[in-house]
């Protein structure tokens, strides 16, 4: 199986981590997002949405990080995507929540507009309003994540690590790039530290850690 990816991609890193932990061999093909390779005809033919990751398994092609994680978990028979109806539904729910609620405001409404030029608003007043809205919404979702989703659970779906944790951790940890302070969210901090202790974390995140170091002197709006 081949994975088109980039090592700093927030959606690529969960797949990298899970594949590493689950011992799933992948042929990694970097798509250079910083040079615009994702917009070139060769890659647009692979994914018209010009995004990574993309998984190829023979003549089967799959986009979207969440779907790829589920596919790889099923192919490998990993317990990280449980077979039980309700247990699996809970994993799906958590992953959908990250995609449609948390990430929409935290990642795309607050972090990316500060880190990535393509997401930054051209008008300074609009940019400031975007970040203020994103910050307040992000705080709301972090409170939900801390008190309702996690609570006293070790992981997002209970006591066992699932692909929902791999998926969510990449988005939450992205906040550290702009030096977000999670001290008000004790359960989030505890869970994130648990995820960072996974064998695959350091390798999968070394590129984003390097990027964070390169912007350490930039002033960001943070939580």
- Fraction of residues in H or I helices: 40-55%
Indicate the structural class.
alpha+beta
Number of strands: 4
C-alpha-based Rg, rounded = 17 Å
SSE topology string: EHEHEEHHHHHH
Q: Tally the structural domains.
A: 2
Strand content: 5-15%
From the N-terminal CA to the C-terminal CA, the straight-line distance is 39 Å
Q: Using the coordinates shown, work out and report the CATH topology of the largest domain.
A: Glutathione S-transferase Yfyf (Class Pi), Chain A, domain 2
What's the mean pLDDT score? Answer: 97
CATH class of the largest domain: Mainly Alpha
Number of helices: 8
Description:
The structure is a single chain. With 223 residues, the protein is of the alpha+beta class. The relative contact order is 0.14. The longest helix is centred in the middle third of the chain and has 31 residues, at 85-115. The chain folds into two domains: 2-76, Glutaredoxin; 85-214, Glutathione S-transferase Yfyf (Class Pi), Chain A, domain 2 (Up-down Bundle). A hairpin with a 2-residue loop joins strand 3 and strand 4. It contains eight helices and four strands, in the order E-H-E-H-E-E-H-H-H-H-H-H.
Task: Give the topology, please.
Layout: E1 2-5, H1 12-21, E2 27-30, H2 41-44, E3 54-57, E4 60-63, H3 65-76, H4 85-115, H5 124-150, H6 163-174, H7 186-196, H8 201-214
Parallel strand pairs: 1-2
Antiparallel strand pairs: 1-3, 3-4
Quick take:
This protein has eight helices and four strands.
Key attributes of the depicted protein:
alpha+beta; Glutathione S-transferase Yfyf (Class Pi), Chain A, domain 2; 2 domains; 4-stranded mixed sheet; 4 strands; globular
């Amino acid at each position: 199986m081949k994975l088109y990816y980039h090592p700093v991609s927030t959606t690529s890193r969960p797949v990298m981590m899970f594949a590493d932990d689950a011992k799933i061999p992948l042929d990694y093909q970097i798509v250079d997002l910083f040079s615009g390779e994702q917009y070139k005809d060769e890659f647009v033919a692979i994914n018209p949405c010009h995004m990574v990751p993309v998984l190829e398994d023979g003549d089967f092609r799959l986009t979207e990080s969440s779907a790829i994680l589920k596919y790889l978990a099923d192919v490998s028979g990993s317990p990280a995507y449980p077979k039980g109806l309700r247990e699996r539904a809970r994993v799906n729910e958590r992953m959908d929540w990250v995609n449609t609620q948390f990430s929409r405001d935290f990642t795309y409404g607050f972090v990316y507009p500060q880190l990535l030029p393509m997401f930054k608003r051209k008008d300074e007043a609009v940019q400031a309003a975007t970040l203020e809205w994103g910050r307040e919404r992000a705080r709301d979702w972090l409170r939900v994540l801390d008190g309702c989703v996690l609570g006293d659970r070790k992981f997002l779906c209970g006591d066992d690590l699932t692909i929902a944790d791999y998926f969510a951790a990449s988005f939450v940890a992205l906040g550290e790039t702009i030096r977000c302070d999670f001290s008000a969210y004790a359960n989030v901090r505890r869970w994130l530290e648990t995820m960072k202790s996974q064998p695959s974390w350091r390798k999968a995140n070394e590129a984003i850690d390097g990027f964070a170091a390169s912007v350490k002197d930039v002033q960001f709006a943070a939580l």
